[in-house]
Design brief:
Elements lengths: L1 H27 L6 E7 L2 E11 L2 E18 L2 E18 L6 E11 L2 E7 L4 E4 L2 E5 L6 E7 L4 E8 L10 E2 L2 E7 L4 E7 L1 E3 L7 E2 L4 H18 L4 E12 L1
Antiparallel strand pairs: 1-2, 1-16, 2-3, 3-4, 4-5, 4-6, 5-10, 6-9, 7-8, 8-14, 9-13, 10-12, 11-16, 12-16, 14-15
Length: 244
């Protein structure tokens, strides 16, 4: 029994001495460093910074941005659309098998992705709600539209490549795919000017006429119904990283 107690005491002493050091090693790991990555993705052009927090895990933050302009027609309305992508995200990169493959749950802390559009109508007829109308030449129809997402959204990515590679290697080519899950984008539509019957009579101001305002509401609801399936924003990215 005395021998057994001596072994237990020695083991307890060793654990008390080595335990904190081991925990610190697991927390920080032997490859502590900082990695930066430049990437191109469906969220835009971005920069990520990663910091090891466990032997097989990094914490990563990143910012992406992109702007694109395009004109298109819908139901006779010409929309000069401006796509603006702005996002800031944080991820926990878990390298489950010790290699480059990782699973990255995260959150988009700022989702500034949105579409702004300026609407104009030529001499052709256009649809508004349930009516076919024509723009009044004396007071042509113009307007604006905006579609935006919730500002905060969870995300999940899988990928290959470690921004902070182990060993003496300094660089990597990270690739990821996944999705950001959010409320579907919501369109807000505002129209001004006067709209007339197709024969050019019965012209009314869209901003004040209750029937035309109801048509604007129906048109807005129609577009939002079409957008309701866009609750997940796909993410595909490819980048180049360097460890400092």
């Amino acid at each position: 029994m005395k021998v057994f107690r001596a072994v237990v005491l020695a083991g307890s002493t060793t654990l008390c001495t080595v335990g904190p050091a081991a925990a610190q090693g697991d927390l920080i790991g032997p490859h502590s460093s900082v990695g930066l990555a430049v990437k191109l993705s469906t969220l835009g052009v971005g920069v990520d910074a990663a910091f090891p927090v466990l032997e097989r895990a990094n914490v990563r933050v990143g910012f992406s941005a992109f702007t694109f302009n395009h004109d298109f027609d819908t139901d006779g309305l010409t929309l000069a659309a401006n796509l603006k992508l702005r996002s800031f995200s944080a991820y926990f990169d878990w390298f489950a098998f010790g290699g480059g493959f990782h699973i990255s749950p995260g959150v988009m802390l700022y989702n500034g992705n949105e579409v702004n559009a300026v609407a104009t109508v030529g001499s052709q007829t256009f649809s508004l709600g349930d009516d076919r109308l024509v723009s009044d030449r004396a007071n042509p129809v113009t307007g604006t539209g905006k579609a935006s997402y919730e500002r905060v959204a969870p995300s999940l990515l899988i990928g290959w490549g470690n921004i902070v590679p182990h060993g003496d290697r300094r660089w990597s080519i990270p690739f990821e795919l996944g999705a950001v899950y959010s409320r579907a984008p919501v369109l807000t539509l505002s129209l001004l000017g006067s709209a007339c019957a197709q024969n050019g009579t019965n012209c009314r101001n869209i901003a004040t006429d209750p029937t035309l305002q109801a048509d604007v509401t129906r048109q807005q609801a129609k577009v939002n119904s079409d957008l309701s399936s866009l609750k997940a924003f796909p993410v595909v990215s490819l980048g180049f990283s360097y460890k400092f």
